């Protein structure tokens, strides 16, 4: 096999990638590349080129995933800040004014105005939103350990409960 130039190799890689993603075998790819280009490559060369392509694709995918993670984390951070602002605002006391009019509907003799300040605990829906943001961030970082479920032990316990009538 003659040595391929950089341009020929890039052209072959493009064709190999196209055929590989169509599910062709290495031998079919080598045959098609040889037929289309007039060059001679072996199925071993195709295998080596596909290994290189897969490494490139994996690196590219990982970069894309990391980039997308940063975008989603920024959105979650912004949302969490909004939830915190809303929660803190919902904890602030509320001023209410009540106006009472005394007299007949046609003639108001006296107007009594009362200002009250009500303290508030805070809207728990904002805390639910904050909790959701934290959970999503933990999922993205993979902080949560996988949950284990022992099928045999739980099945045995269920059988024992049903047998004893519990």
Put the structure in a nutshell.
This protein is an alpha+beta fold. The protein contains five helices and two strands.
What does this protein structure show overall?
The chain is α+β, with helices and mostly antiparallel strands and 166 residues long. The chain folds into two domains: 6-62; 68-145, no CATH class. It is 66% helix and 13% strand. The protein has helices at residues 6-21, 26-37, 43-91, 124-141, 151-164; strands at residues 94-103, 108-118. Strands 1-2 form a two-stranded antiparallel ribbon. A hairpin with a 4-residue loop joins strand 1 (94-103) and strand 2 (108-118). The termini are far apart.
Q: Would you spell out the secondary-structure blueprint of this structure?
A:
Elements: H1 6-21, H2 26-37, H3 43-91, E1 94-103, E2 108-118, H4 124-141, H5 151-164
Helix pairs in contact: 1-2, 1-3, 2-3, 3-4
Mean pLDDT over the residues? 87
Strand tally: 2
Runs in which pLDDT lies below 50 for 5 or more consecutive residues are none
| Rg, Å, rounded | 35 Å
Provide the domain count: 2
The helix/strand order is HHHEEHH
- The count of helical stretches stands at 5
Distance between the termini: 77 Å
Q: What global shape is seen? A: elongated
Major sheet size, sense and barrel closure:
2 strands, antiparallel
Helical residue percent band: 55-70%
């Amino acid at each position: 096999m003659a040595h391929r130039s950089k341009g020929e190799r890039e052209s072959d890689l493009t064709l190999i990638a196209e055929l590989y993603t169509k599910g062709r075998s290495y031998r079919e790819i080598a045959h098609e590349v040889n037929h289309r280009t007039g060059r001679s490559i072996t199925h071993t060369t195709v295998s080596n080129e596909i290994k290189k392509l897969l490494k490139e694709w994996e690196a590219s995918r990982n970069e894309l995933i990391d980039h997308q993670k940063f975008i989603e984390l920024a959105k979650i951070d912004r949302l969490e800040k909004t939830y915190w602002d809303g929660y803190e605002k919902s904890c602030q006391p509320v001023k209410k004014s009540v106006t009472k009019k005394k007299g007949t509907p046609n003639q108001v003799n006296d107007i009594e105005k009362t200002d009250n300040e009500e303290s508030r605990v805070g809207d728990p829906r904002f805390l639910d939103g904050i909790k959701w943001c934290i959970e999503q961030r933990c999922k993205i970082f993979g902080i949560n350990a996988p949950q284990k479920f022992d099928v045999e032990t739980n099945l045995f316990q269920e059988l024992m409960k049903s047998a004893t009538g519990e």
